[in-house]
Each structure stands twice: as C-alpha cells, then as structure tokens.
Amino acid sequence: MTGRLVTTSGECIATPPALLLPPGKLVDPGNPEWATFARSWNDLPHDTWMADGGTYRRRRYAAFEVAGGKCTRLPHRPHYQERDHNPLNGGVERWFAPMDEDPAGSRLFQALVWSTASLIADASRQCPPPWTVEAHQFRIEALSGQPGLPTPEGMHHDGRDWVLIPLVGGSDYAGGESRVEDAFGACILEHRLTSPGEALLLDDRTVRHGTTPIESAIPGAPEWRDTLVLTFAQARES
C-alpha cells in the first residue's frame, strides 16, 4: 500500500516497508480450515519468560526452513532476540511451548507462509531466498484492572528481515492500535486490526512497530486478542 492511509486515529503515510493487507490477501477466514486453525489459540500456555512479571500473554512457538519449494519444520529450539531489539525480554534463550502439529502442518498455514514469501519477493523485487521462518501464536489477555500488553517492550524491531502480523480473532476489547515508525520516529502507518485475516507486513530492517495495550470494554469482563506473528530471516549458509 502506498500513498496516504486514513484511519480512525488520523492520517499517516503508508509506504512499501509497511503494508496493510485486507482479509483474503494472504489468508481467507472463509476457508473451511480457518475455524479449526483459530481454535488452536484456545490452548496456549502462559508465557513464563516475562521480565515484567506479567501474566497477560500466552504463546506457542515453532521454526521452519522455507527453501526449494518446501516448508520444513525445524527441531524445537529456543527463541532469541538481542537486547537492542527487545530491551525487556531479550538477551536470553527463551523456551516456549511448541506449536501443535495440527495448525503448523495445516494446508492453511503452509499456504500463508508461501504467500507471504511471495509477497516479500514482490515488495523487495528479488527472487525469494531461503528463509528461516519463526511462528509465534499470541493471545493477549486483559483482566479486571489489568490491561494486556501486546508489545511490552514498546516500539521495536524484531531483529529479523520481515514480519507478518495477521489478526486471528479476539473479544470486544478496547485498544490494540498498531503504529509503525521509520528510523527517525515518523509515523508511517497507524491502524487497528479489527477483522480476522487482516494483517500488517513490515520490513523489520527499516521500520519499528508497537501496539497499544488492550483493555476490557466492559469493566470487569475479561477480554483477549489473538494474533499470529511470522518472522522471516534469510537462512544462513551451512
């Protein structure tokens, strides 16, 4: 998406490093497999690696090699980010519960990975390289008197090449607006993902991103926001 993007929170410039993708562009919630895929978010354990002591985040993790027409799941491994990229939780190897095989091996997920790789190739105007793809299933929960923080580290880079953030679902929460900034802190895009399948695709090397806390729209009612995060990093030569 290029040009000027008008959102409910004002106007920002949308440039190629930050693409807002409508439902159906990469993944179609009307796909018969979508309901089963989305239900897998109901079985995410708590993230026990939160340095702020928060209990508002649930997640699962998996890594894949995408090359030669194949998307191959790698042996389970820890997730690592430099502290420069994640000042809250970076600098340590974090072992998360593995993503279940049913969603990870589904045709819908495989198609999403390949469609994203193709879109990245179009956006970067180069042939697709071998990718290491990391998949993170996130559920952020807002409890009574406790907002949920989608990005507790604030505006940040993930430390990869590209990042895809599709909305999977959620309840009637307030907040959850995403902001994308360039290297100088200028707003490129500001938008609240509201429809399942809607997504942001970001060039992580050139932009930072963050999302505002979610809160209960009805006082005392628990709320949640489900997203999938796929990061793409050029695979190292062995």
Describe the structure concisely.
The chain has 238 residues and is mainly β. It has helices at 34-39, 101-104, 107-124; strands at 4-7, 10-13, 18-21, 57-67, 70-73, 131-142, 162-170, 173-175, 178-181, 187-191, 199-203, 208-211, 214-216, 223-234.
Explain this structure to me?
By secondary structure, this protein is mainly β. Helix content is 12%, strand content 35%. The chain has three helices and 14 strands. It has helices spanning 34-39, 101-104, 107-124; strands spanning 4-7, 10-13, 18-21, 57-67, 70-73, 131-142, 162-170, 173-175, 178-181, 187-191, 199-203, 208-211, 214-216, 223-234. The chain has a seven-stranded antiparallel β-sheet with strand order 3-11-7-14-6-4-5, covered by helices on one side. Strands 10-9-12 form a three-stranded antiparallel β-sheet, with no helix packed on it. A two-stranded antiparallel ribbon has the order 1-2. Strand 1 and strand 2 (10-13) form a beta hairpin. The protein is globular. The model is unreliable at 1-15 (pLDDT under 50).
Low-pLDDT runs: 1-15
Tally of separate helices: 3
Number of strands: 14
| H-E string | EEEHEEHHEEEEEEEEE
Strand order across the biggest sheet? Answer: 3-11-7-14-6-4-5
Percent of residues in helices = 10-25%
Question: Over the alpha carbons, how many angstroms does the gyration radius reach?
Answer: 17 Å
- Average pLDDT: 89
How far apart lie the N and C ends?
Answer: 36 Å
Question: Which range does the strand content fall in?
Answer: 35-45%
Molecular shape? globular
Determine the structural class based on helices, strands and strand pairing: mainly beta
Major pleated sheet: 7 strands, antiparallel
